[in-house]
Design brief:
The complex is a heterodimer of chains A (305) and B (261). Chain A has 305 residues and is an all-alpha fold. Chain A is 81% helix and 0% strand. The radius of gyration of chain A is 23 Å and the shape is globular. Chain B has helices at 49-57, 92-97, 111-123, 139-151, 169-184, 219-222, 225-232, 250-253, 257-260, and strands at 9-20, 23-34, 38-42, 64-69, 75-78, 157-161, 188-192, 205-209, 213-217, 236-241, 244-249. Chain B has a six-stranded mixed beta sheet, sandwiched between helices. In chain B, strands 2-1-4 form a three-stranded antiparallel beta sheet, covered by helices on one side. The longest helix of chain B is centred in the C-terminal third of the chain and has 16 residues, at 169-184. Classes of the chains: A mainly alpha (305), B alpha/beta (261). The interface between A and B is medium-sized, with 31 and 31 residues. Chain A: Keywords: Membrane, Transmembrane, Transmembrane helix. Chain A: The chain crosses the membrane at residues 20-39, 51-76, 96-114, 126-155, 182-214, 253-272.
Chain lengths: 305, 261
C-alpha cells in the first residue's frame, strides 16, 4: 500500500472522517489556548481542570443522559472559576487546593461511572479518547468553541497578552485582569470539554503544553507563536489520528505520542542549531581577535572568553 | 530641580495599612504626593518599599486608612527588572504597545500608535531596537523600554521599582539624568532604591521606610547615622563629600577596619 492509499483508505469510513475533523480542530484549539496556559505557568491548572471536567461528565450523564455535555460544561466552567479564584489568592497552598478540588472531582467521576455505568461515551473513551461515536452535535459544538476562542483571541489579544506578561501593571493600566482571567478559564474549560471525546481527559493537558512549547522554540514573537502552536497542534491531531487507525490504539494516546515526537525533534534541532551558532560565534571572535592584533602577525594571541 | 513636594496634592495616603494575606507589611502610613514630587523610598529588604509603591499604583488596597487620588491622575509603573519574565515572546515594540491595551481592541497597531511608539523609543535612545526581542537588550535598555511603555500612557505620576538595580555606573548616571528630565517635563516621580550613595543621595527628597515612614526630607536631612539606624537597624557612618552625604558601613569602618585598611 502506498502513501496515498494509506491516507485515502481510512476516509471511506465516516467515523474516521469525523474523528479526523475533530482531532485536527481540537489540536489547533488546544494549541491556541496552550500558548496562554504555558506562558502563564498554568500547565498544572490545565491538567487539573481536565480531570475536574471528567467529574462533571460522569455526574451529568447520571442525572441527564441527553444533556451530559451541558452538565459537564457547567461543572467545568464552575471548576475553572473556582480554580481561577483559588490561584489568584497567591497562598502557598493554592496548588494543593487545586489538586484536591480537581482530583476529588475526578475520583467522583470514576466512582459514579463504576457504580452506574456510562450512558454516553464510555469510560475508556472519556479517559483516553476515541474516534468512535462522534456525533454531528459534537463536531458543531467543537466548531462553535473554536470560533468563540478565535474571537476572544482577536478582540482581547492585547488584554490577554498584557495580563499574561505583567498582570499587576495591566491592572494598573486599566485592563480588567479578573475578567480577562475568568474569560480565559471559561474558554479553557469549554475547549477541554469539546476535545474530551477524541483526546481524552488524561491526555488533554499534554496537548495544551506540547504545541505551545515547540512553537516557543521556533519563534520569539507572540503572534507567530499562536500561529505555530495552532499549526503544530492540528498537525499532531491529523497525524495522530492516522497512526491511531493503523496501530489500533486510542486516538488520544497516538495524538499525544505524535506531539511528544515533534517535541523531541524540535529539541534536537534546537540543540544542534545552538551548538552550530556557538561554534560560528567562537570562530568569528577568534578571527576578529586575529585581525585586531597586528603586533603578533602570524601568531594568534590567546583570547579569554 | 525641586521635587521635595510642592504644589497641588495629586495622591494622598492617610493612616494606611497594607499587606498580603494575614501579614501586614505597612502600618499607619501617611504620605502626600505633590505635582512636583521627586522622591526616593529607601529601606531594608522586606521593609515594604515595593508594597508602598504598589499601594500608590492601586494594585494593593489599603487594609485600613484611605488612599485618595486626583480624579484625572494617570499613574504609570516601571517594574523591577528581576521580576520580568524575559522568556516571554515579545518584541520591544509589542511590549511598549501594551500601554495602549485599554484604548484599542484589535491586535495590530494603528498607524498613529506606531508613530507614537517610534517617537517615545527615539526619545529614550532605543529607536533602533523596536523589533528586537526584549531579552536581546542590555539592562539599561530594558529599563528604558519599560519607561517608554510607561510614558506612552502620558502619566502625571511615574512609579519605578529599583530602576538602577544591577546596572553599571554609567547606566545609573544616564538613568538619573533621564528621570531628572522627565521630572522637569512635569511628571511626578516616586522610586524605590537600595542604592544610598549612587541614587538616593542625588534625589531631592527621600523617604525612609521600615513598615512605616521612619523619616522624610532632603538627603542632607535624612541620611544621618540616627535616621539610618532607625531605618536599617544597623549603625552606619555618614561622611560629607562636596556637600553630599556618603554612607559607609560601620562594619567596614569600625569592626573590620583593621582588615580592610
Amino acid at each position: 500500500m502506498n502513501l496515498i492509499d494509506s491516507l485515502v483508505s481510512p476516509l471511506t469510513y465516516s467515523f474516521f472522517d469525523r474523528g479526523l475533523i475533530v482531532a485536527t480542530i481540537s489540536g489547533a484549539l488546544l494549541g491556541l489556548i496552550g500558548v496562554y496556559i504555558t506562558l502563564r505557568g498554568m500547565s498544572y491548572i490545565g491538567h487539573g481542570l481536565s480531570h475536574a471536567v471528567f467529574g462533571g461528565f460522569a455526574a451529568a450523564q447520571l442525572f441527564a443522559a441527553q444533556f451530559y455535555v451541558i452538565g459537564a460544561g457547567l461543572w467545568g466552567v464552575a471548576s475553572a472559576l473556582a480554580i481561577n479564584s483559588v490561584s489568584r489568592r497567591q497562598r502557598i497552598g493554592a496548588d494543593a487546593a487545586i489538586g484536591v478540588i480537581t482530583t476529588g472531582s475526578f475520583a467522583l467521576g470514576v466512582a459514579l461511572l463504576s457504580k452506574f455505568g456510562a450512558r454516553g461515551p464510555s469510560f475508556d473513551s472519556a479517559l483516553f479518547g476515541s474516534i468512535l461515536g462522534i456525533s454531528t452535535f459534537q463536531i458543531w459544538g467543537l466548531i462553535a468553541v473554536g470560533i468563540l476562542t478565535v474571537l476572544m483571541i482577536v478582540f482581547r489579544y492585547r488584554a490577554l497578552m498584557f495580563t499574561t506578561f505583567d498582570p499587576d501593571v495591566a491592572d494598573a493600566s486599566g485592563v480588567n485582569v479578573s475578567r480577562t482571567d475568568a474569560m480565559l478559564m471559561i474558554v479553557l474549560s469549554l475547549t477541554i470539554l469539546a476535545t474530551l471525546t477524541v483526546i481524552g481527559v488524561t491526555l488533554v493537558a499534554a496537548m495544551l503544553v506540547i504545541p505551545a512549547v515547540v512553537a516557543r522554540m521556533i519563534t520569539s514573537s507572540f503572534s507567530k507563536m499562536l500561529i505555530w502552536s495552532a499549526g503544530i497542534g492540528s498537525l499532531c491531531g491529523f497525524v495522530g489520528m492516522y497512526l491511531s487507525y493503523y496501530a489500533g490504539v486510542p486516538s488520544g494516546t497516538m495524538i499525544v505520542l505524535t506531539g511528544s515526537a515533534v517535541f523531541a525533534l524540535a529539541l534536537v534541532v534546537r540543540s544542534v542549531r545552538t551548538a552550530i551558532n556557538r561554534r560560528r560565534n567562537k570562530a568569528a571572535a577568534l578571527s576578529q581577535a586575529g585581525q585586531t592584533s597586528p603586533a603578533v602577525s602570524g601568531k594568534k594571541m590567546p583570547v579569554a572568553f | 530641580m525641586t521635587g521635595t513636594g510642592v504644589g497641588r496634592v495629586i495622591l494622598e495616603v492617610s493612616n494606611a495599612s497594607a499587606g498580603y494575606d494575614e501579614a501586614l507589611v505597612l502600618k499607619d502610613v501617611n504620605f502626600h504626593v505633590h505635582e512636583d514630587q521627586f522622591t526616593g523610598i529607601v529601606g531594608p529588604s522586606g521593609a515594604g518599599k515595593t508594597t508602598l509603591l504598589r499601594l500608590l499604583l492601586g494594585v494593593v488596597q489599603p487594609r485600613a486608612g484611605t488612599l485618595t487620588r486626583e480624579a484625572d491622575l494617570r499613574v504609570a509603573y516601571v517594574p523591577q527588572l528581576e521580576t520580568v519574565n524575559w522568556d516571554f515572546p515579545v518584541t520591544v515594540e509589542e511590549c511598549v504597545l501594551m500601554a495602549r491595551t485599554d484604548q484599542r481592541r484589535l491586535p495590530w497597531a494603528s498607524a498613529q500608535e506606531k508613530k507614537q511608539v517610534a517617537k517615545v523609543l527615539e526619545r529614550l535612545g532605543i529607536g533602533d531596537l523596536a523589533s528586537r526581542h526584549i531579552r536581546a537588550l542590555s539592562g539599561g535598555q530594558q529599563q528604558r523600554m519599560f519607561i517608554a511603555r510607561a510614558l506612552l500612557r502620558e502619566p502625571n505620576l511615574l512609579l519605578l521599582d529599583e530602576p538602577t538595580s544591577g546596572v553599571d555606573v554609567n547606566t545609573r548616571h544616564d538613568m538619573l539624568h533621564l528621570l531628572s528630565d522627565l521630572h522637569d517635563d512635569g511628571i511626578s516621580i516616586v522610586l524605590t532604591t537600595h542604592d544610598l550613595n549612587g541614587m538616593a543621595a542625588h534625589l531631592p527628597h527621600l523617604m525612609c521606610v521600615n513598615q512605616t515612614i521612619v523619616a522624610e526630607g532632603t538627603p542632607a536631612e535624612v541620611i544621618t547615622p540616627d535616621v539610618l539606624e532607625n531605618t536599617f537597624g544597623a549603625r552606619l557612618e555618614v561622611l560629607q563629600h562636596l556637600g553630599m552625604p556618603i554612607v559607609i558601613d560601620e562594619y567596614v569602618s569600625g569592626d573590620l577596619g583593621a582588615v580592610t585598611r
